Amino acid sequence: MSDVLELVDVSVVREGRALVDQVSWSISEGERWVILGPNGAGKTTLLQIASSYLFPTSGKVSVLGEKLGEVDVFELRSRIGLAGASMFDKLPAEQTVLQTVLTAAYGMTVSWQETYDQSDEGRALALLDRMGMAGLTARKFGTLSEGERKRTLIARALMTDPELLLLDEPAAGLDLGGREDLVRRLGALAQDEFAPSMAMVTHHVEEIAPGFTHVLMIRQGKVLTAGPIDTELTARNLSKCFGLPLTLERHGDRWSAQGLPLG
Ligand SMILES: Nc1ncnc2c1ncn2[C@@H]1O[C@H](COP(=O)(O)OP(=O)(O)OP(=O)(O)O)[C@@H](O)[C@H]1O
């Protein structure tokens, strides 16, 4: 089994429909994966499995060397960083940005201690600084803009020094400046040899940061392609994935895609 993540013939069936359909996919240490696919393809469902929050209907899953179904998931979850919109509702709006990141160290969402370990606080501040949030650590989480919240959640996901970092649409809803700022920060993370293995769900190839190494494309719960970005991120694969003819351009270490004109 692969070090970081291994899915073998994994399916998730709800109401007679396979949301994830016999998916086999693995992540080895140091790899940074992009997950692309149309709305409803099963991307978030895959991340829920990878983060051990969802147990599949069939197939085998191993995360960080532990087989789902045979491991204490609470212990396993502390080794996985997860940042996605599903966290927004769980984090109290009145907590400060610093508290929001600090609580992750205790596997909690709500602050309950009067004082935190100084080293935890130092780590939280350093991670917030890395995500461009140094000036906002005392602000209430609920008052942040979309981009600021996303950057806070990534700092939070990194708080436990995870071995696997899962990002669900980190750039969704950001304006052009916010997206480019985030892509730069994710690029720095992806190119940091000490950063965890990563998997990031995105809807847009423009959001793929330099340093991402592999791509998984899914459509209707099935794997269309999985492998190195250099060989698998092609106009042909992308067109199949999204179900319409697309052109794809590479500009150095960034990408852009467009639909072909009608007619
Ligand atoms: N509990 C459930 N019962 C039935 N269907 C579900 C359930 N949860 C999710 N689905 C469906 O499963 C499919 C896959 O959902 P998922 O959120 O994984 O897709 P996604 O690729 O992340 O989509 P998006 O890009 O729109 O966020 C969708 O059609 C969704 O409606």
TrEMBL record:
It comes from Streptomyces rubellomurinus (strain ATCC 31215). The keyword Nucleotide-binding applies. Pfam families: ABC_tran. This is Iron ABC transporter ATP-binding protein. Residues 5-245 form the ABC transporter domain. Coiled coil: none annotated. InterPro entries: AAA+_ATPase, ABC_transporter-like_ATP-bd, P-loop_NTPase. One of its GO terms (molecular function) is ATP hydrolysis activity. Keywords: ATP-binding, Nucleotide-binding. Transmembrane segments: none annotated. It comes from the Bacteria.
